[in-house]
Structure formats: structure tokens, C-alpha cells
Amino acid sequence: MVKINYFKLILSIVICQLAGIIGSFFTVSSVSTWFLTLNKPFFNPPSWLFGPVWITLYLLMGISLYLIWNSYNKSSRLAISFFSIQLVLNSLWSILFFGLKNPLLAFIEIIILWIFILLTIIFSHKKSKTSAYLLIPYILWVTFAAILNFSIFYLN
């Protein structure tokens, strides 16, 4: 039976949720102002959907991080490094898109984010298949977000 390290689990989840909180500082003020003025594609979800989706994704990311960290050894370094980079890039996207109001720069950045999520999945899979599988909804949502981001850039 695998022993759960609750401290590491909670810390992993909190770290990921903090990335969302950092991004939300830039999102909240623009969603009700600048973002409303943009032309959006027909498939743009309602604004209320983003919060619950991201909270869920950050929870899954936190559990994924925990699974890698809890079985940490030398080979885990790359997985944790890629995870850390993608987490920073995740917050950076909100700064670029909502803070700087720059959909083009945000689109370029989200492509880089997507690559680092993929690298995280590949390298975490070597440590924990479950860890990698937990990131699949995340990469799918970021794929959708990238398409949405490009569409907003194109329409404006």
C-alpha cells in the first residue's frame, strides 16, 4: 500500500492553485472591461465556465505534481523542471493576454506553454503513468484555449 504524504499533496495542490491566483489578478479586471469589447468566435464559452474549469485543472495538476515529487529521484528532475516551467508559463499567459492586452504575444506564448505541457506529460509518464494521465485534460483545454486565443487575435 502506498503511503500518502499529505503535506506534499496539499503543498503541490496549493502551488498549482497559486499559479491560477496569480493569473487571475490580471484576468479579473480585464474580463469585465477590455475582453467584453473584443470580437470572439462562435465557440467562445461563457465567462463563468473558465473559473470552475481552471480550478479543476489546477487540482489535477497538483495531484500530478505530487505523484512525481513523492517518488522523487534523479530521473524526476526533468519532469519537475518541465512542470515548473509550464506552471510559470501558465501564469504568464494571463499577464500577456489580459494584463498587456496582447493576444498575439499571448498566442505565441501559449504555443510554448503547450510544448512544455507535452514535455511534462512525456517525462512524468516515466515516473508515474497516473501523473501523466492527470495532465491530459489540461493539455486538451490549453489546445482549445490556443485556438480560442488565435481566433480572438484574428478577429480583432
Please characterize this protein's 3D structure:
The chain is 81% helix and 0% strand. With 156 residues, it is an all-alpha fold. The chain has a single domain (6-32, 48-155), classed as Ferritin (Up-down Bundle). Helix 1 runs antiparallel to helix 3 and helix 1 (6-31) packs parallel to helix 4 (76-99). The radius of gyration is 16 Å and the shape is elongated.
Fraction in helix: over 70%
What is the radius of gyration computed over CA atoms, rounded to a whole number of angstroms?
16 Å
Distance between the termini: 55 Å
Number of strands: 0
Return the domain count: 1
- Determine the mean pLDDT: 96
For the largest beta-sheet, the strand count, sense and barrel status come to:
none
What is the molecular shape? elongated
Strand content: under 5%
The structure class reads mainly alpha
- The level 1 CATH classification is Mainly Alpha
In the CATH hierarchy, the architecture is Up-down Bundle
- Topology pattern, helix = H, strand = E: HHHHHHH
- The fold-level CATH name is Ferritin
- The poorly predicted ranges are none
CATH superfamily: TspO/MBR protein
The number of distinct helices, counting runs of at least 4 residues, comes to: 7
Features:
7 helices, 81% helix, 156 residues, Ferritin, mainly alpha
Write the topology of this structure.
Layout lengths: L5 H26 L2 H4 L9 H24 L5 H24 L3 H23 L3 H6 L1 H20 L1
Summarize the structure.
This protein is mostly helical and 156 residues long. The chain has helices at 6-31, 34-37, 47-70, 76-99, 103-125, 129-134, 136-155.
